[in-house]
Amino acid sequence: MSAETPELVLGVLAWIPNDIAFELRGDPDLLTILGERADRIAAAAR
Amino acid sequence: MSAARVLALLDLLQSHRQWAGPELARRLEVTDRTLRRDVERLRDLGYRIETTRGTAGGYRLEAGSSVPPLLLTDAEAVTMAIGLRLAAEQGIADAEQVAAGALAKFEQVLPAPVRERVAALSSLSRPATPDAIPVAAELLGQLALVCRDHERVRFRYRSGDVETRRVVEPYALVAVRQRWFLLCWDLERGGWRTFRVDRLSELFATRLNFSPRPLPAPDPAAYVMASVESLSKRYRVEAILDLPLERMVERFGRWSEGAVAEGPKQRAGR
Description:
The complex is a heterodimer. Chain A is of the alpha+beta class. Chain A has two helices and two strands; from the N terminus they run βαβα. Chain A is 57% helix and 15% strand. The N and C termini of chain A lie far apart (29 Å). In chain B, a hairpin with a 2-residue loop joins strand 10 (260-262) and strand 11. In chain B, the strands form three sheets. In chain B, strands 7-6-5-4-8 form a five-stranded antiparallel beta sheet. Chain B has helices at 3-15, 21-28, 32-44, 74-89, 96-109, 112-122, 137-149, 220-232, 245-252; strands spanning 18-20, 48-52, 58-62, 151-159, 162-176, 179-186, 191-196, 200-209, 235-241, 260-262, 265-268. By secondary structure, chain B is of the alpha+beta class. Helix content of chain B is 40%, strand content 28%. Chain B is elongated, with a radius of gyration of 23 Å. The interface between A and B is medium-sized, with 25 and 23 residues.
């Protein structure tokens, strides 16, 4: 899938059900950004 | 007094906001004195036509204190305006531009009390699809007007967390994927830009007209569509989900476009 911003990509990925295994492929820089954003959210939620 | 000539004058005044007196007289093939009489006749019929002075003096059709006598009752005007707004807002295929053009003409003469009723009733409606982002029809109407009249505008534009002030020459309103875009020449950045109308606020029409530049492409709609498409494809990932394809499509809607089943696993997106 493609989107205008990394935030939109992250928002869509957030809809993947918790009990479903998945893997991501794509531009390493984008995957890094997504990982960092997800880490920040996880940290803030703890 | 020729009724046909007065209607021709009204048609000209509705087709463009500002007219120089001599230009109107030339088009109608009448003298200045006859033109003034015809303008008075329209005023008598309820049309509010302002006279502007100076070197760029002329005539301008303004919103009146009552609906001009063609014509429509207030209830009919309200119904018509709501219909146009809904058509413009809700992404009816191929009808948005037509609806916006008609809306511009209509908003130009809609008296304030009727406009308020239209706004109140229109606010009860909602976009037909989850992807559609509501845009105030009045804003669309104003933008359609300034595009038509080649009038410079200022506005605030929000992109992510950043808000900027823009001064532009507006050229076209284009609907792509149920979102409205404004194609314009950005005066401070010296280039063509496409702005999402739902991110635009504090629109101010400067009343300064500009001479149109050659467009970046023969078809503004195709140009905007291409730039939106290239932007939307900027960030791309492949997600491989252990999920039946139909469940994935059901859950992700348009985001699963291009998804294919892949052996025991399913591939979402590309």
